[in-house]
Specification:
Blueprint: E1 2-4, E2 11-16, E3 19-24, H1 34-48, E4 55-60, H2 81-95, E5 102-106, E6 109-111, H3 113-119, E7 123-126, E8 131-133, H4 136-139, H5 147-155, H6 157-166, E9 169-171, H7 172-178, E10 183-184, H8 190-202, H9 206-217, H10 220-239, H11 242-253
Parallel strand pairs: 3-4, 4-5, 5-7, 6-8, 7-10
Antiparallel strand pairs: 1-2, 2-3, 8-9
Helix pairs in contact: 1-2, 2-10, 5-6, 5-10
Length: 262
């Protein structure tokens, strides 16, 4: 099975040997928007209903896994940012309702909302050169994509606070050490490592896999939905500040921001 989404939605979907591969095709940064997140959700839901699919791999073409939202001109977030993000988060919440286990193959950078997308997966495979970055505080606004729930669940509250408050980069080796990533692979083996892992899940009894996963995830979808509502409210408040305007401008201009608490 191979499906290429319409050109306006750069997502490729393939199914082979029990593993569905969802590949973002917006290189090099693979910025997301409401349409792309929706396409990922719709593809995953369709594969949920396909008895041939027993595990999913989320991957990206190009240099980076996902750099999150594009705040540059024409990036889709330069209009009514709150309305756009509300629709995007509504779709993102549905990703946590997918019933099939998901492994993310994270190359290059997973930044901001891209980190949130990676953390929505059950597992993450990284390389030594992978960079995980929760850069929200250095952009001047609150984190999103359910990271209030997923990041502490993965690394603990204190480490999550460190990453969110400083916005520092975490390399692949540290990511494995702190629990943000689960396995480390060489760059040329990243995707195959993720697919091999997915195949091992696909070889297990599918009804048991879904049952066990549902038990372990417990109320995760509900917790994420509640967190998303709070995250969006805080983002809306902080997007209106001068510090946020400075943080985003500095990022686009590749310079250090100067914040004044305004």
């Amino acid at each position: 099975m191979t499906t290429d989404s319409p050109q306006t939605i750069p997502l490729s979907v393939t199914l082979d040997d029990g593993v569905g591969l969802l590949e973002l095709r917006r290189p090099p940064n693979n910025f997301f928007d409401e349409q792309l997140i929706g396409a990922i959700v719709d593809a995953a839901r369709e594969l949920d209903d396909d008895s041939r699919c027993r595990a999913l791999v989320l991957a990206s073409a190009g240099k980076h896994f996902c750099a999150g939202a594009d705040f540059g001109a024409g990036g889709g977030f330069d209009a009514d940012r709150v309305a756009v993000s509300e629709r995007l988060y509504r779709r993102a919440a549905q990703l946590f309702e997918v019933q099939t286990p998901i492994i993310a193959a994270v190359q290059g950078a997973a930044v901001g909302g891209g980190l949130g997308l990676a953390c929505a997966a059950d597992f993450r495979v990284a390389t030594p050169a992978t960079r995980f970055v929760a850069n929200f505080s250095v952009l001047g606004f609150h984190h999103g994509f359910g990271l209030s729930v997923t990041l502490p669940d993965l690394v603990g509250r204190r480490v999550a606070a460190d990453l969110l408050l400083t916005g520092r980069r975490v390399g692949g080796e540290e990511a494995v050490r702190i629990g943000l990533a689960d396995r480390l692979a060489e760059p040329d083996q990243l995707r195959e490592t993720a697919i091999d892992w997915a195949r091992s899940i696909a070889a297990a009894a599918p009804l048991a896999v879904r049952s066990i996963r549902t038990t372990l995830r417990a109320d995760l979808p509900g917790r994420v939905q509640e967190a998303l509502e709070h995250e969006l409210a805080e983002q809306a408040r902080l997007w209106a500040t001068r510090d946020c305007a400075e943080g985003i401008a500095a990022s686009l201009e590749r310079r250090q921001p100067v914040f004044h608490g305004e």
